[in-house]
Amino acid sequence: MNNDKTSINKINNETQNTPEKGPLSFLTGSLTSFLLCIISYFISNNIVIYFSLHKPSNSTEIVQSISSSINTLIIGLSFLLTFSFAFIGLGLFIVFIRSFLIKKN
């Protein structure tokens, strides 16, 4: 029972010691995320160009199918990363705007 109280006290102390995030923090996070989005977009485009120029040239149909599937998976994941950075950047920018509109108690 005493161990539970000490862990709750540690959690309360940690939350009290952490400073609140301000608008500048939201703006820098948003800009960083948008920058990573742009970088990953160019990387994704280069991946698409590479895979379109270097088609799998295997003799068996099964190996060709697996190779094509892996290429599609890599392209899909790279564009998913791009979308994720863009979505996070947009969300942080909305929170940045919202931080000016809402008054703190």
Topology:
Layout: H1 2-17, H2 23-53, H3 61-101
Report what the structure shows.
With 105 residues, this protein is mainly α. The mean pLDDT is 86. The protein contains 3 helices and no strands. It has helices at residues 2-17, 23-53, 61-101. The protein has one domain. It is elongated, with a radius of gyration of 23 Å.
Distance N to C terminus: 35 Å
Number of domains: 1
Structural class: mainly alpha
Oligomer: single chain
Task: Please tell me what the overall shape is.
Answer: elongated
Fraction of residues in β-strands: under 5%
Task: Output the keywords.
105 residues, single chain, mainly alpha, 3 helices
Task: Give a quick summary of the entry.
It is built from 3 helices and no strands. It is mostly helical and 105 residues long. Helix 2 runs antiparallel to helix 3.
